[in-house]
Amino acid sequence: MAISGGWDAIDFNWKKSGATCVFYGCNSGHNESEGFAVRLSSLDNFKEVIVWGQSTSSFPSFEPHIRVTTLARSTNTGWDMGPTYMVGGKGGEGSSAILGPYPAATPLNFFCNGIHLGESHQGAFNDHRTRT
């Protein structure tokens, strides 16, 4: 969907304060000045909403802060084996995500009113962690 005439035309029913909108798709928050998440956060209908987006490609993981998966998931089976987070990762880390040592998730960027506020993994707001 286009931002102009699409995302900017939605009449959202955000809560009065503390609203959050998160995009887990690849590179949705990759560019701190022209990327998808920052552009949405600049729209009038996203005013005062914290908009998060992935800084890199995203991959399934059992944890919100590290990239850990199984061979079954990598072959598109075994999706019912625990929680699934879509975390940022770098190319070439697939073997480590299965066998360890598990790579740290690349951070999501978050924005409000077109301003980059910071970066973090999704454990900041969505956490069922079993590993630390």
Word description of this protein:
The chain is an alpha+beta fold. The chain has one domain (18-124). It is built from three helices and six strands; from the N terminus they run βαββαβαββ. The protein has helices spanning 36-41, 71-74, 94-99, and strands at 20-23, 50-54, 57-61, 85-89, 108-112, 115-120. A four-stranded mixed β-sheet has the order 1-2-5-6. The longest helix has 6 residues, at 36-41. The termini are far apart. The relative contact order is 0.21. The model has no long low-confidence stretch (mean pLDDT 91).
Shape: elongated
Strand % is 15-25%
Number of strands: 6
Flag low-confidence runs: none
Helices and strands, in order, run as EHEEHEHEE
Derived from helix and strand composition plus strand pairing, the structural class reads alpha+beta
Number of domains: 1
